[in-house]
Amino acid sequence: MILTWSVIKWLLLAIVVINEIAALFTVFREKRDIAATWAWLLVLLLLPVVGFIIYAFLGRKLPQRRLERIKSQTQLKLKQAVDRQKVQFQNMPKPKHSTAQMYRRTVMLFQSLDNAFLTRHNNVKVYVDGDKLFQQLFADIEAAQKSINIEFYTIYNDQIGNELRTLLEQKAAEGVEVRVLYDSWGSMGVRADFYNGLRKRGGYATPFLMTHSNFIDFRLNYRDHRKIVVIDGKIGYVGGFNVGDQYLGRVKKFGPWRDTHLRIIGGGVYSLQQRFIRDWNASVKHQESRIKHFRRFFPEIKLDKNQLKNETSLQIVSSGPESPQENIKLGYLRLINAATDHIWIQTPYLIPDDSVIDALQVAAHSGVDVRIMIPCKPDHPFVYRATQYYARVLANHGITIYFYEKGFLHAKTIMIDGRMASVGSANLDFRSFKLNFEINSFIYDRDMTDKLEQIFVNDIRSSRVITPEMFASQSRWLRFKQTFSRLLSPIKIL
């Protein structure tokens, strides 16, 4: 066939028509919010063929069958195993001046959304330094006698990653049950055979809800962003740190790493264990690899007199695309709307949706002291420019914006009125609200909140305030990049 100009025109027309039909079918076959629908429709229509390649990475949702694994019978059986332990903590003496009582509506919110039960008398320690965190974590792992359950977004094949793997292999050889759950994209570069030594010694390791190859399942979204460690069902860790040398300040690009992580002893550990087991059973391919007998993972936690004096009450709340509600975001909104004096926030990524922006603006215009601290350097250029855009918007409404300059700020913390706080894996951005699987600890305790606020004040010494005037003086090119990044942000919420 001779390619004449007439034939070429008909071929191009056919491609355009097929592309438009395919675009309409692709976008409307799955439920999305209006902003995401229009964003993807424009991408697919204006970028024929190329738009579908972009969609393959960013637009595809997880198959429903995978999401249903998380909502399986495991949840019901776990509830039966945990209910017995709840009674122990509910019968403990209640503090006379309980902060949790002041925020009882918030407690009820999380109970309704995520079945998150309130535990009192937790012994909680805050870590902001990676070296100290991993020193304590490794000590707890070395002392483990029965089980070690680990879930991270990132476990790199580097110095600290290999140290952790070697330690886990040692414990597995001793007869301790060891399970490692990791995100295949977040742990990019780590092959499945990285854990062969652990498997040979009786341990287990598997990627979260995904195939072992990102070349086969190359979704950039729907990632397991949770950070959970549970040792012997008695000690738990949750927060922002992943496993990698950069999180210990060993990568020159980022400099000193500033993050926030919690070590918990008490009833909060049950919630972390419950979340891990649900994620594990949803991820393993073979029935024999699933956890079927749950009670042994929820031993009675005996607290001594000193620990009983500790009045740290908390709820562990998780969220993810398997649930129609954005549990953690709704929790953030509840805290922001409840604030009467101040709201202090630390987040590496500031790309909130309209509801969070409106809540922060209402608080600021109502006389509440709203402060937000973000990093001064990017780890993802596109996300960083979008963060700068929203920082500029919020600064124009009287919100104090800090750029942390000592290193990279990766902490995800919110402090409200010196009474309540949240620490976890969820950022103040679209991705954490809608796309990622996240987990946070919501803390009802003045002393613990005061510790977190003291850390915030200390970080201010390594930060500079970015005023609306300073934002206005930025170059047109920089502001264009910020606006352009913001315009594409609906694609991230899908």
Structure description:
The protein has helices at 5-28, 34-46, 50-58, 64-70, 73-90, 99-102, 104-114, 130-142, 159-173, 196-200, 268-283, 305-309, 327-338, 354-365, 381-395, 430-435, 446-460, 468-472, 476-493; strands spanning 119-127, 147-152, 177-182, 204-207, 228-231, 235-239, 257-258, 261-265, 312-319, 342-346, 350-351, 369-375, 400-404, 408-409, 413-416, 420-424, 428-429, 438-444, 463-465. The protein is an alpha/beta fold. It has three domains: 5-58; 65-105 and 115-314, Endonuclease, Chain A (2-Layer Sandwich); 327-493, Endonuclease, Chain A. It starts with a helix and ends with a helix. Helix 1 (5-28) packs antiparallel against helix 2. Helices cover 45% and strands 18% of the residues. The mean pLDDT is 84.
Number of domains: 3
* Global geometry: globular
SS-derived structural category: alpha/beta
CATH homology superfamily name of the largest domain: Endonuclease Chain A
**Main pleated-sheet profile:** 15 strands, mixed
The unreliable regions are none
Sequence-ordered SSE layout with sheet pairings:
Elements: H1 5-28, H2 34-46, H3 50-58, H4 64-70, H5 73-90, H6 99-102, H7 104-114, E1 119-127, H8 130-142, E2 147-152, H9 159-173, E3 177-182, H10 196-200, E4 204-207, E5 228-231, E6 235-239, E7 257-258, E8 261-265, H11 268-283, H12 305-309, E9 312-319, H13 327-338, E10 342-346, E11 350-351, H14 354-365, E12 369-375, H15 381-395, E13 400-404, E14 408-409, E15 413-416, E16 420-424, E17 428-429, H16 430-435, E18 438-444, H17 446-460, E19 463-465, H18 468-472, H19 476-493
Parallel strand pairs: 2-3, 3-4, 7-14, 10-12, 11-17, 12-13
Antiparallel strand pairs: 1-8, 1-9, 2-5, 5-6, 6-8, 9-18, 10-15, 13-19, 15-16, 16-18
